[in-house]
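This part of the workshop introduces the protein records we will be handling. Getting from the letters to the tokens is the skill we practise here. An example says more than a description, so a record of this kind follows:
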Amino acid sequence: MLSILITQFVVLWAVIDPVGTVPVYLSQTHHLTAKQRRLVALKAVGIATGVLLFFLIAGQLLLEAMQIPLPAFQAAGGLVLLLFALSMIFGESKPDQETKLSQDLSKSDLANLAVYPLAIPSIASPGAMMAIVMLTDNHRNSFLDQGMTAGVMILVLLITLLLLLGATHIQKWIGNVGAAIISRVMGLILAAVALNNLLMGIKDFYV
């Protein structure tokens, strides 16, 4: 049982990628105050937790009801993730829409920032949604097993929250330029992972 939990932790850590979320968070919140950053981090992790719990409980039932095979979902998720990765690589480090933002953003502005791209697709990525559906397969796992998987998922999300709350201290060391560089490098890595998911989904769909 312990080995299964460790395996699930490693899988969820890889697909949620708490460390990889930090540069995305820094690049998207560099214009905010410390208080606003904390609020965005809390909202982003909270929204991501809700989304992943939804897929844990109803994801498989929803896909089966719509007659969508997991490989198709994997391919679609990989495509969405690839588009986001390309925006990280080729997008402006400080988009015009960001430079025009003032320090006193409204709560709705902060909520929108927390939803995209932080909660979705950075934390609750298509890969994470797919992984949680596969790890809690209703045909193979009991309710107890699924509950333990949910606990592992929440643990990874709590670690993600702690890393985001400490990201402001990281920024003091690397600065905005460093955050932009890390964001582009992570975008390249993310593009490779997304393309792999896309190709694997297409391959499995036709097998």
In short: The radius of gyration is 17 Å.
